[in-house]
Amino acid sequence: MAIDPVALNRRLLHAAADAGGPAAALVAWTAALGDATGAVRVTLWQAGRNAAAIRILVDWKAPGIDAGADGPRCEQVIRLLIHPRQVLATLVLPAAMMPGGAGEVVPADLVRDLGAQLKILLQGLAAEERAATLAAALDAGRDGVVVVEARPVDGPPGRLVHVSRHFDPAAAPAVLPPPLDRPGMARPLREAAARAAAQGEAQALEMLHPGDGTPRVLKMSIQALPPARLFEGGWLGVLRDPAAPPGEAEVIASQRKMIQALYDANPLPMWIYDEQDFRLLSVNEAMVGKYGYDRETLLGMTLLALRPAEDVPALMTRLTTRASGHEVSGPWRHRAADGRTFYVEIATHRLDWEGRPAILTAAIDITDRELANRVLRSRQGETDRLLRMQTAIIDTIPAQVWLLDVAGNVMAVNRAWSRFAEEMGETAPDVQVGRDFRGAAGGYGGAEPAGPARMAPPIQADAVAAILSVVTGRLPEISHEYRLKVRDQTRWFRMTAVGVTDEAGLPNGAVVMSVEITDMKRAQFEIMAAQNRAIAASAAKSLFLAHMSHELRTPLNAVIGFADVIEGQMLGPVGVGTYRDYAGHIAVAGRHLLQIIDGLLDLANIESGQLSPERRAAGLDALVREAATSCAAVLRRYGATLDIGARGNTTADVDARLTRRMIGFLIDNAIRYGHRGGHVQIRIDGSADDRVSIDITDDGPGVPAERLQTVTEPFSMPSGSVRPERAGVGLGLPLARHYAELHGGRLELTDRHAAGEASSGLRVRITLPRHPEA
Q1: Secondary structure class of 378 (helix, strand, coil)
Q2: For residue range 651-673, what is the model confidence (pLDDT) as tens digits?
Q3: How far apart are CA 554 and CA 597, in angstroms?
Q4: What's the pTM value of the predicted model, to 2 decimals?
Q5: DSSP summary character for residue 722
Q6: How many H-runs (helices) and E-runs (strands) does the chain carry?
Q7: C-alpha dihedral over 622, 627, 632, 633, to 10 degrees?
Q8: Per-position b or e across 47-64, b if 16+ CB within 10 A of its CB
Q9: β-pair partners for 769
Q10: CB atoms within 10 A of CB 193
């Protein structure tokens, strides 16, 4: 049958825990083991000090089953090594329950668990037996014995650990038994216990007891008892009635018997060693179990053998400087028989052992406490190192830094803040370590400081609200600008606060950093003033250009009109033909100048936001041809040819006048910046559903890639290699870009050679929105 180890351990522990007392727990544990394994009989055997001496601890038989009846049976013997004596568990099982008729029901990996559980049960049983032996020894004496648990030792009794038969057993658990419960007796007893603890020696005490009408003198000896694992400490009282004084030898024998019983039954490891040669003279049962040696081996050892070799020099120094009387020292490392080491605290007391000076010693195991202290010291050291590193880091930051806890109190400031506060003197905000960051008044979480508070300006309310929003976790971080008045000067600061959270993500403080930005603020104010002056100057320029353009257009129109009249001989023939040619030149130059003035006027209106297109449906192919016609004179001058092609529906939603001007500017640019006798190609593409595009391509030198982003700015030239007689004023491309953007379109420039084409030149693409009804 298969056994679940976890279920078996749980079942055995529950059975032992539910039993009443160690003896019953051992029987219940054995019965649970038999039930779990299906055994008909389970016997626990313990080896005695003599290997041949075997005694039965428990012999359990399954209810309703005769273990000796006929029928095949199998036995499994489990060897449980429980130091210093081994225990054997014999399981008698029906043969049918064994795998294949033979084998092990309890696997080997469960034996260690069973041994550990059984060891605990046997230790409890041994402790109960020692306690019963101790009680019997105390009751056998003529003197009354009371053991009181009290913490502190001179405090009220917390619990009566033992009361011998000489006292009234009807006393309450936490009340001294009669006759010690009489008024006025408790205080002398507690004072004597305090003296015994302080001096390390038993204290004699005599008290007058009225009795039942006949006064008696009660003589007591009070000895302080140190705390143990389950004993908080207290005192031992021995009462002798002078009405029936025993003989001195009998008293001494009784006391020795009582002390020996206390010594043997003490759960703490105890031993007595020779003060001269450190040889162990006596050990109790608890020491045998703790250190793993048998009694004979221990009595042949010295005190030094209990310590690791490297600890012996420190031990020798301690032994040669021992104080007289009672002494507690530690921690010390002790070594067990199996080589393991553990930490103990030692309590010692000088005594006379058969005519030689000796030391009575009790050891308290503090291994867990010492290891915990070591971990704590290690973590404290790491914490101190991190704090020093943190301090060094924030001290190297040139900005002023505060560290706030979750209550808004200042935990630390860096050197930059200290220098800043020293520089500003009384005008610095009252930020001090250990206090609320808002100063003494209106503290957020810290207590008011002792002594008079320094009168300093508080932090501004908006800055306080910003910091609190981070400290309380409402915002993860903030950035806030504020200003301070320092010696009639205004200084600006930018404060950044970042929240700190704990492992659970809850607010746990904040880091606040302040940087002076006075110079930056001044620069910003100067930039803003310069921008305002530039805006005002641009507005004035636009207004000036608008007025100047108007003033120039009127006389130019008159000059162009009179030149056309003369060239066309509208009022009669011109006598000299050269004059007529001059009039034609005047008309061309005037129109060109008028075009520049119109461009300047449009640029001024665009920059001032006063130019808006009047958009309606128009065919772009027709507008392109009209614009090309207006450029006929430029085409003739440079000997260039023009090729116009269109496909698809070219109807767009545009302002016809602005679009003609835009296309005219681009054709004029293509002719001027192309080669003499060159070729300009125009393609209109209306195949897309939502837009119409126009590509104007020339065969000139093109535009370098680094200048493609700047040629659309006013008064910029496409290329430095263009001859001066061909260069314009730099308004064509900028105005064309603005016209396209006013229509919701865009203008794109591509250098043909950079795009991988064999020929050089510039391609300008205009994309305009299609009319909704087209």
Answers
A1: helix
A2: 999 999 889 988 988 998 888 88
A3: 11
A4: 0.35
A5: S
A6: 17, 26
A7: 160
A8: beeeeeeeeebbebbbee
A9: 691
A10: 27
CB 361 within 8 A of CB 279: no
What residues form DSSP beta bridges with 748? 765
Q: Quick one: three-class SS letters along 577-603? A: HHHHHHHHHHHHHHHHHHHHHHHHHHH
Please choose, from the candidates 167, 207, 160, 212, the residue with its C-alpha nearest in 3D space to the C-alpha of residue 187: 207
pLDDT in tens, 197-247: 888 888 888 776 655 555 566 778 888 888 877 778 888 888 875 444 444
**Alpha-carbon separation of residue 747 from 568, 668, 709, 744 (angstroms):** 40, 16, 11, 10
Do you know the residue count of the chain? 774
Helices within 247-397 (DSSP H only): 248-265, 285-291, 295-299, 312-320, 367-396
CA R_g for the chain: 55
Give 679's strand partners. Answer: 641
Are 714 and 731 within 8 A, CB to CB?
yes
Average pLDDT, integer, range 578-599? 77
Mean pLDDT (the chain) is: 79
Average pLDDT over residues 117-124: 82
Instruction: Tell me the torsion sign for CA atoms 65, 93, 72, 74.
Output: negative
Distance CA 92, CA 74 (A): 6
Please tell me what DSSP assigns to residue 245: P
The phi and psi torsions of 558 (rounded to 5 degrees) equal -65, -40
CA atoms 319, 320, 323, 324: torsion sign: positive
pLDDT of residue 569: 79
Tokens representing 262 are 């206390």
CA nearest neighbour of 620 among 711, 688, 678, 669: 688
Beta strands in 379-506 (DSSP E): 400-404, 410-413, 477-486, 489-501
Concatenated DSSP letters of 554-573: HHHHHHHHHHHHHHTTTTS-
Query: What are the C-alpha distances in Å from 325 to residues 236, 278, 279, 328, 348?
Result: 18, 17, 20, 10, 8
Ramachandran sector of residue 713 (left: φ over 0; alpha: ψ -120 to 50; beta: rest) = beta
Instruction: Please confirm whether the linkage preceding 242 is cis (ω < 30° from 0).
Output: no
